[in-house]
Design a protein that fits this description.
Structural class of chain A: alpha+beta
Shape of chain A: elongated
Number of strands of chain B: 0
InterPro entries (chain A): Ba3_CcO_II_C, CcO_II-like_C, Copper_CuA, Cupredoxin, NosZ/Cyto_c_oxidase_sub2
CATH topology of the largest domain in chain A: Immunoglobulin-like
Distance between the termini of chain A: 75 Å
Largest sheet of chain B: none
Order of helices and strands of chain A: HEEEEEEEEEE
Low-confidence stretches of chain A: none
Number of strands of chain A: 10
Radius of gyration of chain B: 25 Å
CATH architecture of the largest domain in chain A: Sandwich
Largest interface: A-B, 34 and 21 residues
Number of helices of chain A: 1
Structural class of chain B: mainly alpha
Protein name (chain A): Cytochrome C oxidase subunit II
Mean pLDDT of chain A: 91
Order of helices and strands of chain B: HH
Helix content of chain B: 55-70%
Oligomer: heterodimer
CATH class of the largest domain in chain A: Mainly Beta
Shape of chain B: rod-shaped
Strand content of chain B: under 5%
GO molecular function (chain A): copper ion binding; cytochrome-c oxidase activity
Subcellular location (chain A): Cell envelope
Bound molecules: copper (II) ion
Strand content of chain A: 25-35%
Largest sheet of chain A: 5 strands, mixed
Keywords (chain A): Copper, Metal-binding
Low-confidence stretches of chain B: none
Radius of gyration of chain A: 21 Å
Helix content of chain A: 10-25%
């Protein structure tokens, strides 16, 4: 087969590009440690969240030295707790679920972002470094009040933080 | 403007073999597209995505 030299260049460069894309994503998943949201969080009875040990009381709980777990309910049209208070320099795992319809959970302007599905627990782990405040928005249309559905994450200086969540 | 007769007289046929046909303009255009693609890839993944702190790590 007679392949033109320009065509050969293109074939090689195109294959390199694909290899490059794949290695970029591999680099992100291994060296940087970026994870995908999956079904790891398990399921829950959406119509009986008040009887569920994890969600009967939405809260932030300390589970390790600098490790916390936040149990969050997204419902029409609020996030509970609101604000979600976490300390700076911590690793926080969010467990989020919904008692009614599909919602979204996005810490605005960041990559921390998941769907919130009734009956399903979304689990995302995030590292918080500096104190500050982030907004949370629902990015899945969930009803007439969808556009007002927002919350916040307050990252408090470590010495000001008290576990327990809501005040 | 040329009339039809002039054009007929000036027509020459040049045979190009497969390897003599070098579309340099196309090559240059695709090279430029490719460089843009590479730049956008680096910007999107390494700057916009990895630099957009609070990333899901578990
Ligand atoms: Cu919503």
């Amino acid at each position: 087969m007679n392949i033109h030299s320009y065509e050969k260049i293109w074939l090689v460069v195109a294959i390199l590009l694909i290899v490059g894309f794949i290695s970029t994503v591999t680099y992100g998943a291994t060296a940087v440690g970026i994870d995908m949201v999956d079904d790891e969080g398990g399921t829950v009875n959406a119509s009986a969240l008040d009887e569920d040990p994890r969600f009967s009381e939405p809260r932030v709980e300390q589970v390790g030295d600098n490790e916390y777990e936040a149990y969050v309910i997204a419902q029409q049209y609020i996030f509970n707790p609101d604000p979600i208070r976490v300390p700076a320099n911590s690793t926080v795992t969010f467990f989020i679920t919904s008692p009614d319809v599909i919602h979204g959970f996005e810490i605005v302007g960041t990559n921390a972002n998941t769907m919130v599905i009734p009956g399903q627990v979304a689990k995302i782990t995030v590292n918080f470094n500096d104190p500050g405040e982030y907004g949370i928005v629902c990015h899945e249309y969930c009803g007439s009040g969808h556009h007002t559905m927002e919350g916040s994450v307050v990252v408090q200086p470590e010495d000001e933080f008290e576990p327990g969540g809501d005040e | 403007m040329q009339d039809g007769r002039d054009m007929e007289e000036e027509q020459t046929v040049r045979e190009l073999s497969h390897d003599e046909f070098d579309p340099n303009g196309t090559l240059a255009l695709i090279a430029v597209y490719f460089v843009i693609l590479l730049a956008m890839w680096v910007f999107m993944y390494f700057v916009e995505f990895l630099g957009n702190e609070l990333t899901v790590v578990g």
